[in-house]
Amino acid sequence: MALPDTQTKTRFVVEFPINASPKILFPYLATASGLSQWFCDDVRYVEGQRLNFIWDQENHYAEISGQRLNRGVRFVFLDELRQSVTDANYLEFTLDSSQVTDEVYLRVIDYSSTHDASEQQEMWEGLVAKLREQVGG
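^ START-like domain-containing protein, sequence as received from the core. Prediction below:
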């Protein structure tokens, strides 16, 4: 039986302008093959709406809990037994377009155990730089 996670969780939100259309960006945010190109070492479909995110040879299972085509996706992380947990860590990617400037913004919401905010900012800047390389934006 897993012990309850007693660590404090924070909701870290950051936005990045990306020079690519939502149609081009969305597969990089919502598919295993797209995510594995910039987000982690590998991502594999497990079953149904579940994915296995692999970092440093460690498995992290998540379920797609919400998805809107070319707009956003949310991954809710599961426990070691691949079961849902209360107050689970989640990661959400949302694409917003500015009608005025025609720019596309990627909003990242990272809800997880408390991290140093500047470290988290730096980590996401690095990841989004890799994403920009992939999409040419």
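Helices lie at 22-30, 32-35, 117-135.
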